């Protein structure tokens, strides 16, 4: 299982706010909850799942601003694909918390 950090930036919006686009992106993620888990953060969205499913969902997310009339979109993705053991968002947080409790 891989984890993706994704930020989708619609370029040329009428206002500085992009919350309406973020809300639409979250709706697409909800429609794909059988394939991926996700978590909205203040600056990006984290998604976990099988790599092929993630790429499919990323493409759907990238298309959201275009479907709302935006003519240019910049999408940044960072992929953590660990193959030696199962890695999840929750597991990564637990590992850090365990290290913090050792101090």
Q: What fraction strand?
A: 25-35%
Could you name the ranges where pLDDT drops below 50 across 5 or more consecutive residues? Answer: none
* Largest pleated sheet: 4 strands, antiparallel
Distance between the termini: 30 Å
Order of helices and strands: EHEEHEH
Integer average pLDDT: 96
Class by alpha and beta content: alpha+beta
Characterize the overall form.
globular
Q: How many helices does DSSP assign?
A: 3
Q: Write down how many β-strands occur, each being a DSSP E stretch of 2 or more residues.
A: 4
- What gyration radius follows from the Cα positions, in whole Å? 15 Å
Assign the CATH architecture. 2-Layer Sandwich
CATH topology: Alpha-Beta Plaits
Helix proportion range:
40-55%
Number of separate structural domains: 1
Family: Belongs to the UPF0045 family.
InterPro entries: MTH1187/YkoF-like, Thiamine_BP, UPF0045_domain
Protein name: Thiamine-binding protein domain-containing protein
Domain Thiamine-binding protein: 4-97
Summarize the structure.
With 103 residues, the protein is of the alpha+beta class.
How would you describe what is shown here?
The chain is an alpha+beta fold. It has a single domain, classed as Alpha-Beta Plaits. 42% of the residues lie in helices and 29% in strands. A 4-stranded antiparallel β-sheet has the order 2-3-1-4, with helices on one face. Helix 1 packs across helix 2. It is globular and about 50 Å long. The model has no long low-confidence stretch (mean pLDDT 96).
